[in-house]
Amino acid sequence: VQLQASGGGLVQAGDSLRLSCTASGGTLSRSSVAWFRQRPGKERDFVAAIRWVNSITNYADSVRGRFTISRDNAQNTAYLQMNNLKPEDTAVYYCAASIMSTISPRTSAWNSWGQGTLVTVSS
Predict the structure, then answer these.
(1) Containing H/E element for 94?
(2) Which residue of 66, 100, 112, 120 is surrounded by the most CB atoms within 10 Å?
(3) pLDDT of 52-78, one tens digit each?
(4) Over the stretch 71-84, which tens digit does the pLDDT of each residue have?
(5) How far apart are CA 116 and CA 53, in angstroms?
(6) Cα(5)–Cα(12) distance, integer angstroms
């Protein structure tokens, strides 16, 4: 499955954005989906994940309560709703998928990756 992330942009602190991860060449309905982010010069960090079985979710502590991961199987798309954005949320955001029923924060657990979408939050 090929993944396409979109929805990034330049916003001010406190604003909201919704990122989308659309799949092609396959279906997301039986894939777990995750979002990671990478700041300049830093490693790729886990943000959120949703398991395809029961849609159980997992969040990084830094975003819990502000970000929400969801999926729309009919649209073959997953989303990351980001509220109350902070300058430290500035990063390139990547979506990833796995056929395994996982919500792991490890990058090695995810075998399909989309290109990133840049989110910039100004103070």
Answers:
(1) strand 91-98
(2) 112
(3) 878 899 999 999 999 999 999 899 999
(4) 998 999 999 999 99
(5) 25
(6) 21
